User: What shape does this take?
Amino acid sequence: MGLPWYWTAIIAFAIINFLLISASVLVYAERKVSAAMQNRPGPNRVGPAGFLQPFADVAKLLLKENIVPAMANPFVHSLAPFLMVAIAMTAGALIPFARGVVIADTDMGVLVLLALTSITVYGVTLAGWSSNSKYSLLGGLRASAQMISYELSMGLAVLSVVLMSGTFNLVDIVEGQSGGMAVLGWNFFKNPIGALLFIVTAFAETNRTPFDLPEAEQELVGGYHTEYSGMKFGMFFLAEYVNFFVASFFIVTLFFGGFLVPFEPAMISIFPSLDGSILLGAMQIGTVLLKAGFFAYLFIWVRWTLPRFKYNQLMTLGWKYLLPIALVNVVVIAIIMTVMQYL
Amino acid sequence: MFEDYIPFFIQLAIASGLSLTLLKGGELLGPSRPNRIKIMPYESGMDPVGSARQRYSIKFYLVAMIFIVFDVEIVFLYPWAISFQDFLAAGVGLEVLGIVIVFIVILAIGLIYDIKKGGLEFD
Amino acid sequence: MAGQILFFALAVTAIAAGVGVVWSRSPINSALWLILNLFCIAGLYLTLNAQFIAVIQILVYAGAIMVLFLFVIMLLNLSEMPSVTRFTIARLFGFFLVMGVLALLTYAVAAGLDVLPERIVPAAAAVSGSPSTLARSLFTEYALPFEIIGILLLAATVGAVIIAKRKPV
Assistant: This one.
């Protein structure tokens, strides 16, 4: 963008605060949705319908004691939650919210996203190692092995999108889906297997149920954050919610038309003054929020519906099913593209 | 171009600042009264048995090694994916597709070998 | 000018991190220094307009190979290395040898400074380092080496399994 750096900084600050507030709304939504699914009222004491509950939680976490276990490495013990939150928030820079409203519009957008995903593993690994607890170490090992296993299928799902779009730029990938009245042109319809693979691997990368083995309470207590308390625990919690919200945005960006308003070309042909107007920008932001909100709801919905995998089932699914399917999917798409070229 | 990445680094800086604020805020606002029992690593309420610094299964290491191989493979496929349409337009699409399929098949053999040898069994 | 300041900042940090890798007694600190080093190198690629290589550097080195290193540290639970302060002839000899190599390298770089064609990175570097340019040569001119890389990676996979799955004798 041609904006001066201080404007970029202000927008970046706004987006980070937006992610923070969204995370607290999602925490509240998760508790209310799970309560509704289990026929109980859920949080209803703090504020109207318990809406201020997340803020009360944050205040509580801030005022709690921060315990560092004996023999732990204090620096690495703090570094791990720091990395988790910093990386989760940085990924927000890549989300295209509307035409022209994206902080980092780079030619390597998709690869930067995958690079950020791949270094998220550090936070988990370091947290597990630094705590000097057996549960933490086992949880950290499991979590990092799971994340790297599913990263491959995620990379191949992204590759199939790049193959069709011919670009790494996230804004161009969104614009490439504008055919078919900005609905039927979605990559989801052209590449449904890739979309499903990306959604499944996004669940695994964010350690959400059914892939939440790293924190399987019954066997590993709290997983890699067993030995964290107070705000440091809160940071892992925050990172989880920001991660799956950001992942929802990327599912939408890559496969569900991103900020493209359905029937946008038709609307512009009826009202030509709409093109490039602030109203259209607002509609685009509203569209992307609505779409991402649906997938954020899906993350919550699945968590309270499906049981957790066993660890060997998880590794079998990742290596013996998803990875071969992802490879075949890429080859099939390439073959179809070639056949269409030569027809 | 390097300039394209400046906004990204601005976001990184602000995100790190927020993260540091949360970390230090929690440390400053909360009390700190450690005692021997409190800082004991959690082991279901018992005193910890032995050290947590023990050696663990090699299987995780194997997963990481196989991961590197396939990660590098996928990295080689990115340049192909981004320019496959150009290859098709230039009329060499079929040759390039053949080259890439041979590459993928070679690596698929590796994956099948790993699965058959039980390198990816977690029981 | 700003580009040169950036270059020197990144280069000095990269070297300092490299020194940190060998200086640290604890393997986890070495690993953290190495991560910092890898990120500085990625930054250097970025200043050279090689954005694809910069991202790949993070993706492969920081994202995959460093994870393997961290796994080793976690799985073997390497503890701090004992401090070695004993003075031997071999160490003295090694010191002078390393200093000699350093002097030679410094001389070579200093002698080459004014021979270098241009100090400023041309914008054309962004084109020659772009993934599509890379693809054009990788899949036409260098197709055979590309397949050989595939076989090399296959050998690496097979080797990893054979070493890890060897039955205890």
